Amino acid sequence: MMAIIKHRVARAWLRDVFTGLTESLLREPTLNKKIVAVLAGVVFAVAASPSFADQFLLHNDTHHAITSFTTKEKGEKWSSNWIKKRIKSGETWQMEFAKPGKNCVVAVNVKSDDGFVHDYDINFCKASEIFIEDESITYK
């Protein structure tokens, strides 16, 4: 019984607090404008900030199989090989980071079965697809 009374008292207190805040905002137009301005700024900042693409498509547009795909953030070591099997010519794989990166730009190292090595910096805040070609890496 005591728990029910405490629950009702707490609920009534929260209702009074929110009612009081709402009434204060309606009575105080200056405060209301400030809160709206702050909220608009927060929404704009969140919408404008780039987000790290933790998933992307990797297209093998080369004439060879890709045997290794590793990544490295600035100041870090190279990751282990992301792929267990070879990515055959013409295949597309869904790739996913284990955790979001600290920086948008991440170094990528790709090796193919003909010995060719691609080293490239990719902006993962802008990349949702990576295209490995015989002579270059592009992304969009």
Give structural notes:
The structure is a single chain. By secondary structure, this protein is α+β, with helices and mostly antiparallel strands. The protein has two helices and seven strands, in the order ααβββββββ. It has helices spanning 2-27, 29-48; strands at residues 55-60, 66-72, 92-96, 105-112, 117-123, 129-132, 137-139. The strands form two sheets. Strands 3-1-6-7 form a four-stranded mixed beta sheet, with no helix packed on it. It has a three-stranded antiparallel beta sheet with strand order 2-4-5, with no helix packed on it. Strand 4 (105-112) and strand 5 (117-123) form a beta hairpin.
Keywords:
single chain; alpha+beta; 29% strand; 140 residues; four-stranded mixed β-sheet; three-stranded antiparallel β-sheet
Strand order in space, largest sheet: 3-1-6-7
Mean residue pLDDT: 78
* Gyration radius, rounded: 26 Å
Shape: elongated
How many distinct beta strands? 7
Share of residues in helices: 25-40%
- Head-to-tail CA distance between termini: 62 Å
Reported for the largest beta sheet, the result is: 4 strands, mixed
Number of helices: 2
- pLDDT < 50 stretches: 1-7, 38-49
Percent strand: 25-35%
Helix-strand pattern: HHEEEEEEE
Report the structural category: alpha+beta
